[in-house]
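User: Teach me something about this protein's shape.
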Amino acid sequence: MHLSLGLAQISPRLGLFPENLQLHLERIHRARDAGADLVIFPELSLTGYILQDLVSDLAINPAHSMQLQPLLDECREIDCIFGFVEESDNFKYYNSAAYVSKGKIQHIHRKLYLPTYGMFDEMRFFAMGEKLRTVKTEFGPLGLLICEDLWHPSTLFLHAQDGAWMVVTISSSPGRGIRGDKSFQTSQGWESLLKTMSQFYTVYNIYVNRAGTEDGAYFPGGSMVVDPNGEIVAQSTSSGDDFIFAELDSAEIRRARLQTPVLRDERLELTLRELTRIIRQRSNFDENN
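Assistant: First, the predicted structure itself:
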């Protein structure tokens, strides 16, 4: 498997769907002209991140709306991942990511873990996703996550056990915690996490973070691709809008898994048995307190 990626590190305009859609069309066109097979946008790339009461106004039900059709039409010869507010048939709102191939949405991932601490208030406005599925693409099995999802190790573990060769995490992670070298503590945290997770699970980790400012928050970009050995093979050099190209090769996954066969040796029955025990213990504790 050889896959050419385009990472679209953009600055969406808060609440301005038409402008953001046009920005997507321009980046898709650029990626296609450059020969990319897949172009990836950040979390909530069509709407901006700090939406609050705008969530319901910007929500889209892909089954009943034509708003996404111009984007889908541009993705007949290139695959695409983008972020949007999804409205379900029973009127729940989700922070979602869509995988588009051959002009159609093939898969939607709903954010599983909604940060509601510090500056974050997602659980007030969004419902939690309930499923995690690896996407079967013509380039190989792909896992899809949204920002906070990756900070819960079970998500990448499940994707890897489900056969994923690569895991895409789209993000709108603000910069927080200035360090002595004037870098953000959060940016260094993402880099460490991505490198460690890649090495643990012998997968490509693809991270696309947004840029720009929004409602007082600063988003420093930092998009990157990490190979199955935990090495960065492509990375944004800008904290602003940027476009990063990278090449993925399944031969690197094969070499890493031959050298470090941790996935082969994983004992799922043991994990399931012990998790069942822990859940039962917690349930009993809750009933007795």
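Now, about its shape. The domain at 2-261 is CATH 3.60.110.10 (Nitrilase/N-carbamoyl-D-aminoacid amidohydrolase). The first strand starts at residue 2 and ends at 9. If you'd like, I can walk through any region in more detail.
User: That's plenty for now, thanks!
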